[in-house]
Amino acid sequence: MHQLIRLAAYLWPLPYTLFGFACGLLLAGRFQYRDGVFEIHSPAIASVLKRFPVAANAVTFGHAVLARDNEMLRVMRQHERVHVRQYERWGVVFVPAYLLASAFLYLQGKDGYRDNPFEKEAYAVDAADS
Ligand SMILES: [Zn+2]
Predict the structure, then answer these.
(1) What pLDDT is recorded for position 126?
(2) Helix (H) or strand (E) holding 46
(3) Is 2 exposed, middle or buried (0-12, 13-18, 19+ CB in 10 A)?
(4) Distance 24 CA to ligand 1 centre (A)
(5) What whole-number distance in Å separates Cα of residue 12 and Cα of residue 29?
(6) Cα 3 to ligand 1 centroid, rounded to whole Å
(7) pLDDT digits (tens, 9 = 90+) for 68-84
(8) pTM summary value
(9) Distance 17 CA to ligand 1 centre (A)
(10) What per-residue confidence (pLDDT) applies to 130?
(11) 67 vs 41: CA distance, rounded Å
(12) Which of 61, 62, 58 is nearest to 49 (CA)?
């Protein structure tokens, strides 16, 4: 039963994992597989992340984490693993839920990134760790 749940946790967000994997290939990423997660970095990924609305050091798509470089993979690992767990819980609904939460907060005059409950959960792990 436990193995079936683990399998579902991988299948349910699989479209996002494939998207992240494809981005890694297109952006000439260097891949490593660690604790069930593809970690990918490259200079091209770095230049895309710098152009995000909130300049990012890393981004998670399902079980694929893209980062500026190997150092940022290390620094952001705990934070991005929280997002991996969120994808495992929310599956294909995760990205729409994240964006709706951001939009809702923005319309209330709040910060759609820092006030987003998905980010708060990830930053709480960072804070607990430091
Ligand atoms: Zn985050």
Answers:
(1) 74
(2) helix 43-50
(3) exposed
(4) 18
(5) 24
(6) 28
(7) 999 999 999 999 999 99
(8) 0.93
(9) 16
(10) 59
(11) 5
(12) 58
Going from the Cα of 7 to the center of ligand 1, the distance in angstroms, rounded, reads 24
Strands in 35-118 per DSSP E: 37-41, 58-61, 64-67
- pLDDT of the residue at 70: 97
User: What's the CA-to-centroid distance between 1 and ligand 1, angstroms?
Assistant: 30
Q: Which residues pair with 41 in a beta bridge?
A: 30, 67
Residue 14's alpha-carbon distances to 7, 62, 67, 84, 104, in angstroms, are 11, 6, 19, 11, 26
Residue 33 predicted with pLDDT over 90? yes
Backbone φ/ψ region at 63: left (φ over 0), alpha (ψ -120 to 50), beta:
alpha
Under 8 Å between Cβ of 116 and 101: yes
**Distance (Å) from CA 6 to ligand 1 centroid:** 23
- pLDDT tens for 96-119 read 999 999 999 999 999 999 999 999
